[in-house]
Specification:
Layout (H helix, E strand, L loop, with lengths): L1 H12 L5 E4 L3 E2 L1 H7 L4 E4 L5 E2 L3 H8 L11 H6 L5 E2 L5 H15 L16
Parallel strand pairs: 1-3, 2-4, 3-5
Length: 121
């Protein structure tokens, strides 16, 4: 995952957008790492999304999760975790629009702005 995040830094440096598409099911470290730093995060309707699934979380914390514990695209959209929910049949149009908008408004910003400086001790 570290190498992918380094590649994403280069993507920013090149003025290219990072768009993440979340499909069902979407669980694991990829959500916590490079998906969460995307410029735009799009999910399919009803997609189950989270770091771990309900069963894994319940086994880990040794408790039952409340019935209102949702890990769905709609819930995450309502709470600002993702940017949009788009059916797969509409993705081509949405992605075309996003890429056109990015092309028309891209400002080249040095990648160093997004990478913390490492200091050796």
């Amino acid at each position: 995952m570290a190498k992918v995040n380094i590649a994403l830094t280069r993507l920013v440096s090149a003025g290219q957008p990072h768009i993440a598409l979340l499909v069902d099911p979407y669980y694991g470290g990829v959500l916590a790492s490079y998906t969460s730093v995307a410029d735009v995060i799009i999910a399919e309707p009803g997609a189950r999304i989270g770091f771990a699934g309900r069963r894994v979380i319940e086994q880990t914390i040794r408790q039952k999760l409340p019935s209102y514990f949702f890990q769905t695209a709609g819930f995450l959209l309502e709470h600002g975790t993702i940017d949009m929910v788009t059916p797969r049949s509409e993705l081509r149009s949405v992605l075309s629009t996003l890429l056109r908008l990015y092309r028309d408004t891209t400002v080249h910003t040095p990648a160093a702005q997004y990478v913390p400086t490492l200091k050796r001790t």
